[in-house]
């Protein structure tokens, strides 16, 4: 199979799974009648995006990829609490396979619990409730399998691809509702917001600082190794969590005091910058990088190895983190300011953060999928020379 056929097959598999996924989110569950939430409910956007609108109509794939998103995070919490699971994680590849099996079971269990909750709050009889639980649980298991098919045979991570598909399915209706309320001004503002966030997200995701590194020459036997020049790529680890945490902290005071005072927006901007910087600083250790350089015989030209290299890398990295945190604050401020101009929602921060998360997620998935396609093409191109 040549390069073009392999790419075509992966694309068709991904598109086919997305179509099946959306069909499952349109297939109604027997004996279920639900009332859609109010259009201006603060949690409506988040629930619709996480389930593809499934909680409003409760189809067979009512929970979407929500159990697949929740299971890994819940499993990480259980690993920290249960020593046996922590021991499995320390066993390497064999333990990882066992944890993966536990994670798959946990996804189905979450779907089962959600289905039982639907039956309890729906007031169904025993027979109808059993049918509903069976359909929704089977739907969760099938969604799990669809994500695995995309990961193994398609492009990108299956959970992220299907999440993106259901997000794109929900957004047109939300934009239409916003257009009916604000007219063409909504289209103009959303266009500016989308383009601005997309450009800044790409700049943060692709931008990096190259710190030059030189490796000392070593003679092993009659051969000389090392002596090559390379670099350490330093970049800002972008994430949506700082904006989400800032919005949650401000949700209560904003609800009671309103957003008429622009000071709330300024506080939101400062909090996002602060949380973004703290998260990135904790996630990176320049002492570890400097230690690995010493063990590999590498050094930064003009800087002594060891502590001096760690201090230099930390100095450069903190400047990068400061700029990245400022950009994260600007990215978080753009949708909030745009929606404030439209007076779009009483839950302005929730809606703004949701819009930011959607756009940043869309850009990151697109970049990751593009990298995977390019990597596959390069692998196929050089495969004849590796035989």
Could you explain the architecture of this structure?
This protein is mostly helical and 387 residues long. It has 14 helices and five strands. The protein has helices at 3-24, 44-51, 54-57, 66-81, 83-89, 93-122, 126-153, 158-182, 184-206, 241-257, 263-283, 286-296, 307-342, 348-382, and strands spanning 209-215, 218-220, 223-225, 229-234, 298-299. The protein has a three-stranded antiparallel beta sheet with strand order 4-1-5. Strands 2-3 form a two-stranded antiparallel ribbon. A hairpin with a 2-residue loop joins strand 2 (218-220) and strand 3 (223-225). The longest helix has 36 residues, at 307-342. The chain is globular, with a radius of gyration of 25 Å. The two termini are 16 Å apart. The mean pLDDT is 79.
């Amino acid at each position: 199979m040549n390069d073009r056929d392999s790419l075509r097959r992966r694309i068709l598999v991904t598109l086919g799974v997305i179509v099946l996924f959306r069909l499952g989110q349109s297939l109604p569950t027997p004996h279920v009648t639900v009332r859609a939430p109010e259009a201006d409910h603060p949690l409506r956007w988040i629930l619709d995006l996480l389930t593809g609108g499934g909680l409003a109509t409760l189809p067979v794939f009512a929970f979407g990829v929500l159990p697949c998103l929740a299971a890994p995070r819940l499993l990480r919490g259980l690993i920290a609490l249960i020593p046996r699971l922590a021991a499995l994680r320390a066993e390497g590849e064999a333990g990882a396979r066992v944890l993966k099996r536990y994670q798959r079971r946990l996804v189905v269990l979450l779907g089962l619990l959600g289905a039982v909750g639907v039956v309890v709050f729906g007031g169904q009889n025993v027979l109808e409730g059993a049918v509903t639980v069976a359909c929704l649980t089977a739907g969760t298991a099938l969604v799990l399998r669809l994500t695995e098919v995309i990961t193994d045979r398609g492009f990108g991570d299956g959970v992220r691809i299907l999440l993106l598909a259901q997000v794109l399915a929900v957004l047109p209706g939300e934009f239409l509702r916003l257009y009916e309320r604000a007219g063409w001004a909504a289209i103009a503002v959303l266009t500016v917001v989308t383009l601005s966030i997309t450009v800044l997200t790409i700049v943060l995701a692709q931008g990096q600082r190259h710190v030059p590194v030189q490796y000392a020459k070593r003679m092993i036997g009659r051969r000389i190794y090392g002596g090559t020049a390379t670099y350490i790529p330093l970049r800002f680890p972008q994430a949506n969590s700082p904006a989400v945490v800032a919005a949650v902290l401000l949700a209560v005071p904003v609800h009671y005091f309103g957003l008429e005072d622009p000071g709330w927006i300024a506080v939101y901007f400062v909090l996002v910058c602060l949380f973004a910087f703290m998260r990135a600083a904790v996630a990176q250790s320049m002492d570890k990088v400097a230690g690995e350089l010493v063990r590999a015989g590498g050094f930064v030209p003009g800087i002594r190895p060891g502590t001096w290299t760690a201090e230099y890398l930390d100095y450069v990295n903190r400047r990068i983190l400061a700029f990245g945190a400022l950009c994260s604050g600007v990215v978080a401020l753009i949708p909030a300011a745009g929606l404030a101009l439209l007076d779009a929602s009483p839950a302005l921060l929730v809606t703004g953060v949701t819009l930011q998360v959607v756009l940043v997620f869309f850009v990151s998935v697109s970049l990751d999928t593009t990298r995977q396609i390019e990597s596959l093409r390069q692998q196929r191109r050089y495969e004849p020379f590796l035989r």
